Amino acid sequence: MTTTPLSPLSADQALCAASLVRGLTDRLAAIPATEASGLASHLLTPGGLATDMRRLLDAATRHTTTREHKDPRMPLSPAPSAQKTPGRPTVLIVAPGDEVYRGYCLEQVAAAYDVVVITPQTLTWETEHVVDHEVADPYQLDELLAAGETLAARHTLAGVLTWNEPLLVHTAQLAEHLGLRTNTASVMENCRNKHATRRLLAAHRVPSARSGRVTDLLQATILAEAIGYPIVLKPAGQAGSVGVIRVDNSEDLARAFDFTAAGAGLAGGQNTDVLVEEYLDGPEISVECVTQHGITHAVAVTRKKLGFEPYFEEIGHTVDAADPLLAQVAPIAAAAIRALGIDHGIQHVEMRLTPSGPRIIEVNGRIGGDLIGHLVRLATGLDLPRIAADLACGTTPRLERTRLRAAGVTLLYPQTSGTLTHRSIDEEFAGCTAWLDLVQWIGRVGDRIVLPPEGDVDVARAGLYVVTGYDAAKVEERLTETAKHIALGVQPATGTAGAAA
Question: What is the pTM of this model?
């Protein structure tokens, strides 16, 4: 028998190999002896394990992205518009968002499709990825439909999508108007309206939280007493934890109700209802899902870090391709998606790991924010934006993982509200650290930083950074190490908010 000699492993590959072997050992120990024996025999077939291991290791350490070669701390010069590629389908994207959090989404879609967009302002950073666009206010349905018709007259559109949470319903209406594939607008409304979500989850016996809709403080007081403290107040139609607060006792309810009602009335909320809900105790996660023809595949678990109690500000995320939790929570996420009637697309399903088991917080019918899709790509090799475009066009996406790694992001908040006076990272550390995937400043020197509860994610964050590793523990170690090399300076303002908890 002859075998093909393998080249020496790099240090990173050796670490990844050790992680893979540990994970394989755990998996073999957890399954019945007969299944373990059969699997072991297959893996030990001459050439099989070595070949598979080399393929996985090569994929795991091949983590260059289109963003790695751009210095995120420097402004990009204007780029020429992308040119149409003969034979490629054209996808319409509604409101692609800002470059910090959604730039990778547009890049990944544009790598496989010709992209046209509808934006509320003239193109800036999007230009190099877009072949055509229309300027219109996507929150005004008549403007959105007119802009869509104009683009459809110039291009043969294969699909429409958005990753903008408040525009999910309007985008579905646009797709229906153009005769393109979509979840119905009513289905998207059930995702956007958290009260409707709770009713459907309860009707389908999907583990969730006890919840009720109220219109005033008296109703909130009665329902809170019935549910039992602590409770959570949240707007029924907002996103991004806007207006969400935990209330531990009746004495704090009036102030908290005013906070949530104010959040419900902010721009982006599709209704002003307030919900009183049971507080779900336990770690918070999200399950990143791909659904086609009503069949859901859970592709990753995101472990979340929250701060600023009693608010629910997200301050970090970690994705591990080998997270054993995925098998446990995938059926619950799929059941929630079915209960809402979702037929296809990407879903970001948030839940809490309570003492009684995983329970749903909410179902978002789009790619998760805060660079979660980017983390999924670094950890698994799956491009969720590309998959979203495939699904919008009716194409079956490829869901095979090409990486078995982990990645994490820390969202940078200063210790106090005030004027940002300094921001820096050790240039020597950043220049020689291969696992530091991305450093992105958000606030500029001179900007006003306002921490929760007065400020939201748009004005509270100074920056973010992303690291990779061979497992979640290594990622956490590297996130901590990177923090030692970053400095933020803030001139406090009078009556400042506290730091992240």
Answer: 0.83
